[in-house]
Amino acid sequence: YVPPQVRKAQVTLDDKKREELGRLKKMVNGLINRLSEPNLSSISGQLEELYMANSRKDMNDTLTDILMNACVTAVAMPARLMMEHVLLVSILHHTVGIEVGAHFLEAVVKKFDELCKSDVEGKECENLLALIAHLYNFHVVHSLLIFDILKKLVSTFTEKDIELILFLLKNVGFSLRKDDALALKDLISEAQSKANAAEKKLKDQTRVRFMLETMLALRNNDMRKIPGYDPEPVEKLRKLQRTLVHSSSSGKETQLRVSLESLLNADQVGRWWIIGSSWSGAPMINNTNSKTQQKLHIGKVSSKIMELARKQRMNTDIRRSIFCVLMTSEDFLDAFEKLLK
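-> structure tokens emitted (341 positions)
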């Protein structure tokens, strides 16, 4: 048995396999090129059949590559086209399995992180952000990821970041408010303090002012203050999504509740959000061990208690710590708190 990780390293694809992948790519490409709202149902059905006939990994890789090539361009993509592509992913995410959405999401987020670090002139970052925003709109990913991205952008707070914050808030601001108003409020206050601190550095003050006004409009649930805000197309496609995904899994329980950090470190810490995903290496275990070792010594414990612990044969650090906590706590609540620590 050769594990997938090692298989990947042996990239000696024989001609037959390469030919198969080329044929698969052609078929998927043909379907994606014809994608539009009226034929979404037939195209998602055909892609489902391809998923049944081919290996999941090949299909996920092919579909992700083709969608990324179609949507991540140097010019801004039409919003309508973006939504239709993401809606297709969300339908497959619900009907085929959550690894479809998870694979696509991971590729998009990693690409976004990579492009944010390198100063690209084009609109690739906006296009990637639009993909993430619509993955959230169509219930593939939880608001947790969107808040993580917003926090990251607010913490760096360059002029490009302000553009991206505005772009994201315009697309999903009101949904975020519905999902987690408290987190949005915290984010707004953080952005305000950041804007005050960076007042002298940023040349384009009107943009910052406009961003803060947009945030206040979101907080006050005032849609009129946001220029060009139109929830109609998303709502229309959400309705279509509900009709196409009949199964009970069409609700929010298939949302991937995954943070930005987990996605970016997926290769190091594994993909816990995909059931049965293989992973070699176990740094997580080592980390937790070292953490418990550090946290064990809770305050100074008298020698009398330590002597008692020894008499009771508490022969490991953890046992001794638990014994000391129980013996020195004032009441059950205090004991509970200390044990948690």
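The domain at 4-265 is CATH 1.25.40.180 (Serine Threonine Protein Phosphatase 5, Tetratricopeptide repeat).
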